[in-house]
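call fold(seq) -> tokens
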Amino acid sequence: MVYTRITDRLLNDNIIDNLLINRSRLNEMNEQLASGKAINRPSDNTVASMNIMFNKKVLGSIDTFKTNIEYAAAELNIADRSVLSAVDVVHRAKELTVQASNSTLGSDQMKDIANEMDQLVNRIVDLGNTRYNSKFLFGGKITDREPYDLEGDSIQYKGTMPDKDFERNVEISQNVTMPINMVADEVFGQYDTSSDPPRQYGLLNTLKTISNELKFDTPSHSNIRDQLDVLDDDLETLLNVQAELGGRLTRLDMTRNKLSDDELTYTRFLSENEDIDLARVISEIKFQETALQASLSASARAIQPSLLGKI
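ret:
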């Protein structure tokens, strides 16, 4: 049988190493309990740390996308209400046009209808100049000034033209963008008599045409009646715009719901990697405290002073 001589120094070193291991483990568990986190530094668990950073990055992106969606939804809702108001204007314009097409009306009554029609024109201009916060919604990418400018009898559109790059896009999910604006020129038209050639089309042109006809000394009831069909076309344009805006809002709702589901999933992943099991950690602390006390007690008995250790 081979015997190994154990010196006091070797014994002391082993005792100290064991005590340090127990204290380190106890300190680690206390740190987890205090922070509520299983991982307090990357060196604690490299793989878990990488998962935590990835999950936090994804959650940060989701938060940004949801903020973008809320802003886009607010802007689209305001635009939708503006178009809905324009639909009401068209219905009122049709009522007035039907009245004006009645050949029994006198000149004073025709002028009254013309004055109200002018108010409807101004109402459409106001709707085209709708703003949200500091942005004009219907001006394309030109959002810092009113899209419509009144110059004498002309109503000029000053925003980005529909054949240009007019869309303002927001990112609603990873690498997915959606336009949130429409241009007033397409929605409401314009009545610009100062340009060459004149740009006269859309709802504004229809309303101005009716108003101008009503102001003649002998307005043509036939011409006024013909504008009813044109108003129907303008109404269809507005309804199509409403359908487009409604589709975008529905898409935003669907994307928001999907992001909320993803947020719950990645929050759970993050918690699984980062958060502690409170009951397990408390139990582990009690165990480590008992183990440390046992080590201290055993160490005290093992290193009793002895003259034999000096030989």
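The CA atoms of residues 51 and 273 lie 7 Å apart.
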